[in-house]
Design goal:
Blueprint (H helix, E strand, L loop, with lengths): L5 H17 L13 H16 L29 E6 L4 E8 L2 E8 L7 E5 L5 E6 L8 E6 L5 E6 L12 E6 L5 E5 L4 E5 L9 E5 L6 E4 L5 E5 L6 E7 L5 E3 L3 E2 L9 E2 L5 E4 L6 E6 L2 E6 L7 E6 L5 E6 L4 E6 L11 E7 L6 E3 L3
Antiparallel strand pairs: 1-2, 1-25, 2-3, 4-5, 5-6, 6-7, 8-9, 9-10, 10-11, 12-13, 13-14, 14-15, 14-16, 17-18, 18-19, 19-20, 21-22, 22-23, 23-24
């Protein structure tokens, strides 16, 4: 049995338990309250089924070059800013990064510490979801902040006809068109707010999706991936049609409980930590899967994030309070062990991370 990695195994259950405690009438059923051993078995089953071969072993690291164009992979600027959601207390911390060292620029607590899910857009605006307990039915919304913690906008959750419960929001994603995607566990639905947020009229991606607990959108907005209706540690992609509706695809496995703390590119490559396996990251897609190791085999990987064109993956190492930058292989993320190109240090309480996209 592999050692437990608390940040990855509890990020969703902590959030759902917090939501149930704060607002029991909004969240009557807790989907992810399973034994950790089940999570590990599911993750390992995925790896065996999707990868088709053992994960690639890390190459010799040596000295780390700067991020640059190489083997057809676009150049990427060094990481300058990162946001972190600490699921233990619901606080969001913004870090600025210079010369490889992180410095706290702002810490704030949306909804008095009940924030769930984290995303950043290309302008550095921060998105999270809040389900409050001081109203009946519960008040649920997406809250948008500047990178200095200044409140910008609130997007209220809709009341969906025929929903099994009141709104209870658990995750958020944003594409490059500033469309904001939300998983609503209480109403068992996923929907998005168009880029003109002030309209506050969300479009349904899927409704009556059992256990709709987390969501990722591809940067171009063409595909939405939802953890719900597929069983444990599995997700379903939805493709937007010309009419604006969504067509469901086939389920595929991922390496963690749900998509919170994961990242996705336009090819529907989903990158996540692997629950219960120290230092291991998975990449999965409708076409198969792969894994790669980070340096430090006892590292607890809590979250990952892509840069704007997904040429760089940032991996949060909770154990060592550092973020590792990996360059996408020339043949894509599914082709094997990526190149480690940078280490960023000086972080605190790393958990769910987001970078400007």
């Amino acid at each position: 049995m592999f050692p437990e990695t608390a940040p990855t195994k509890t990020k969703l259950t902590l959030g759902l338990q917090r939501g149930a405690w704060l607002c029991r009438e909004c969240l009557e059923r807790i989907v992810m309250k399973y034994a950790f051993s089940v999570a590990l078995l599911a993750a390992l089953s995925f790896l065996a089924a999707c990868a088709g071969q053992p994960g690639m072993q890390p190459s010799s690291l040596g000295s780390l070059p700067s991020v640059s164009s190489r083997a057809g992979v676009p150049a990427a600027s060094p990481l300058a800013q990162l946001a972190n959601l600490d699921y233990s207390n619901g606080s969001i911390t913004v870090f600025s990064i210079e010369n490889g060292r992180a410095k706290v620029t702002k810490t704030f607590s949306p909804g008095h510490g009940i924030a769930q899910g984290l995303a950043m857009d290309g302008a550095g605006r921060i998105y999270t979801t809040v389900t409050a307990s001081d109203s009946k039915p519960c008040a649920a919304s997406v809250e948008v902040f500047s990178n200095t913690g200044r409140f910008i906008e609130r997007l209220d959750a809709p009341i969906l006809k025929g929903a099994p419960g009141a709104p209870s929001l658990t995750d958020v994603a944003v594409d490059r068109h500033s469309n904001v995607y939300v998983s609503d566990f209480g109403q068992q639905a996923v929907y998005f707010y168009p880029g003109a947020h002030k309209t506050k009229s969300p479009t349904i991606v899927v409704q009556n999706s059992q256990n709709a607990a987390s969501v990722l959108s591809t940067p171009n907005g063409a595909n939405v991936v939802v953890s719900g209706g597929c069983g444990f540690a599995s997700v379903r992609p939805y493709t937007r049609t010309s009419s604006g509706q969504y067509t469901p695809g086939s389920c595929f496995g991922i390496g963690t409980i749900a998509l919170i703390g994961g990242a996705i590119d336009d090819l529907v490559d989903v990158m996540t930590p692997v629950d219960g396996v120290p230092g291991l990251v998975s990449v999965s897609s409708p076409n198969g899967g792969e894994t790669f190791h980070t340096p430090g085999r006892l590292a607890s990987i809590s979250g990952v994030a892509f840069n704007g064109d997904a040429s760089i993956a940032y991996v949060a190492d909770h154990t060592n309070e550092r973020v590792l930058a990996f360059r996408r292989p020339a043949s894509g993320w599914l082709s094997g062990q990526p190149k480690l190109v940078a280490r960023y240090r000086g972080f605190q309480n790393l958990d769910i991370i987001a970078v400007p996209r």
